[in-house]
Amino acid sequence: MAEPCFLKGGHVLDSMCGIIGYVGRKASAPVLLEGLRRLEYRGYDSAGVAVLNGAGLQLRKKKGRIDKGLARLLEQQPVAGQLGIGHTRWATHGPPSDTNSHPHLDQSGEIAVVHNGVIENCDRLKRKLLKAGHKFRSGTDTEVLAHLIGIITRSTVPTIPTPHGARALAKALQHLPSIRRASRPPRRETVLIH
Q1: Mean pLDDT throughout 147-169?
Q2: 176 contact partners, CB below 8 Å, separation of at least 6
Q3: 3-class secondary-structure state, position 112
């Protein structure tokens, strides 16, 4: 698993990244977008962000190069908030499309997940979730992971098997008490890219 890398003073300290997160005083979408632009040289097919604000999680994702896709979408449909995650995708499950772009939401729409790698037992897990009444919007293994995280965070005894092969993951929880109780932004800005 790659070590996390941080964006400080406008510099990416590690170039082996595809996931970015931001918590700070600034609007998160522009910070996330700039971080994703710095990662795009690796040939990704789509990109997306999830930003948390008083209205919940706001998702924007688009197939194609960042400046022709996600950046234009964010101009047309801006998101506001000081906490967010972003991802540049290279398709491994499901073809390149807006729908298959990351982030993906859990069943409740309260958890956004971005992920690098392959969930090796994805098909088996998805069948179990479908049988339990879950509905999926994409053809990705990451959406299966989002649904599993949703179940686990709402359960005292997780009953769903663990995914195999997950490498890098970041999540934003709408219902996390420490986020809702925060009366002011953090003292320092933090940007995590993994």
Answers
A1: 64
A2: none
A3: strand
